Structure formats: structure tokens, C-alpha cells
Amino acid sequence: QEYTCIKLKVLEWSKNAKELFGENPEFKDKNIYFVAATLRPETMYGQTNCYIGTEIDYGLFKINDTDIFICTYRAARNMAFQGYSEDRGKVNQLAEVKGSVLIGTKVNAPLSKYEQVYILPMENVLQTKGTGVVTSVPSDSPDDYITLMDLKKKAEYYKIDPSWANYEPVPIIRTPNYGDLSAPNVCVQKKINSQKDRVQLAEAKDIVYKEGFYNGIMLVSDYAGKPVQEVKPLIRDLLVSTKQGFIYNEPESLVMSRSG
Ligand code: ZZB
Questions:
Q1: Is 202 in the pocket of ligand 1 (CB under 6 A)?
Q2: What's the start-to-end Cα distance of the chain, in Å?
Q3: Per-residue pLDDT tens for 104-113?
Q4: Looking only at Cα atoms, what is the longest distance across the chain?
Q5: Which residues on neighbouring strands pair with residue 134, listed in sequence order?
Q6: Is 38 in the pocket of ligand 1 (CB under 6 A)?
Q7: What is the pTM of this model?
Q8: Domain 2-168+229-255 architecture
């Protein structure tokens, strides 16, 4: 599986992360990025936040003299074999931390309409897939949309500041059957109530994915008016050439044996 990894730069640590890392000289003056794996680079204009699992262990990995990546150890190890480490195949883990500590960290999401977005909790993040970090596009991903609605409705329950979820989905892709906000529209149509409605969410994801890919037209960016199918590789290349992202391959056998 070939993913595009998106680098979301840390602008300000959460309170708990600041206590852990704030004074650490190893992190001083470094560019620290949450690294999210996506199959939909063309949707990055609509990012409103980024999701992690509160119970998942994340590492901070030294990639070179300037950059540190946050993702699962498994992903960092794969990256090390794909050229993203100081020594090929060698992982340099500087720290390990539970996802819950990172919630509320403020980041910059490349291409997003919003300059600053937050790291928020999602129950359905899989440790064994991608990087364990999922960037959120509620306009075009039913899981992202319904989770954002959960967080808005029950901020206290999810232990977040309501302002961190105070973002609206951005219309970025027009579709003939589900309009300009296909994920919210399909969620309403299917009466999906929360991120716990896993079966309906999987169906909604399938519908929205196919509709966006085969029938979607971009509403934003230099590519506005062009079909999603045509611009997807161009936006992927743009992210890579500007170093806001990179290509990451997930070894197939591992995906199947761990999550299949
Ligand atoms: C941004 C995005 C925008 C995504 C969208 C989807 C959609 P698939 O097809 O099942 O492989 N993802 C990545 N890693 C994880 C993880 N560890 N746990 C849970 N979800 C994860 O799905 C690939 C997508 O699943 C990725 O692409 C990512 O979300 C999420 F508008 O990134 B996507 C209709 C889907 N739309």
C-alpha cells in the first residue's frame, strides 16, 4: 500500500507534553512533525484537525539533524528502511509517549485552509495501520466528520477544550450525488450518530470514497474545476516536492497479518 505521509508541524505542545518535552535540549530548535498517512492527498485543503489514539504508544524519532517525527514505532521502522532515518534501517527513538499526553497540541497542517489545528482523540485509530496518526478531513471522510461531531457535543467527556474542535468542514470537492460536503451528507442520510456506528461508517466511507474519486471535481486550489482523478497525483507530487510530505510504503504482508 502506497501512502502519502503529511508532515504536521508542532507549533505548541499540549500542557502535558510541554511538561515532558518543554525543557528537553534534544527537542530545542528542532522541527517536530506529526506524520499522518493518507490515501487522499487531494483532500489536504480541508484538514480541520488531526487524530491519534489516546491509548496508543507514540515515539519521537530523530530523522536527521533538524527533524523529529511522531508516529508509531512500527511506522518509524518501516520508514528507516525507506530512507527516512540517519542510518538506513536504524531507528533513533528519543522518547515514547501515550497518545493522551499529546492531545491538544497545536500543529500546522500543510495546504489546510486553517493555519492552526489541534491533535484530537479518535476511538477508531488503528495502531497497526499507516503511522497511527490520521489527519482529519470531515468534508470527505465520514469517520473524521462523525468524530468531530462527537468531540463538539461531548468535549468534557473526551477531555478536550471545546475550542480545539471549533472548526467547520470545508467544501473542497463537488460531487453530483452528495454535493459539496459528501461525508456530512452521507452521514445524515445514513443516520449515523457517533463514531461507535462502525458498520455504517465503513459503508459510508466506501460510498464517499468512490463518489469523490470517480465523480468529484475540485472546488479549491490551483486545480479548481478539475476532476479528482486527474489532480490526485499532481497534489501528491506538490506535497512531496515542497517537502510537506513524502511517499511511504506499508509492507503488504504486515498489513494483512496484523490487521486483517
Ligand atoms: C485523509 C483522508 C481524507 C482520508 C478523506 C480518507 C478520506 P483505507 O482505504 O481503509 O486504507 N487512516 C490512515 N491510517 C489510519 C489508522 N491508523 N487508523 C484509522 N484510519 C487510518 O483508508 C485509508 C484512510 O484511512 C486514510 O486516508 C486515513 O484517512 C485513514 F476524505 O486520510 B485518509 C472516504 C475516505 N475519505
A1: no
A2: 14
A3: 999 999 999 9
A4: 53
A5: 51
A6: yes
A7: 0.96
A8: Alpha-Beta Complex (3.90)
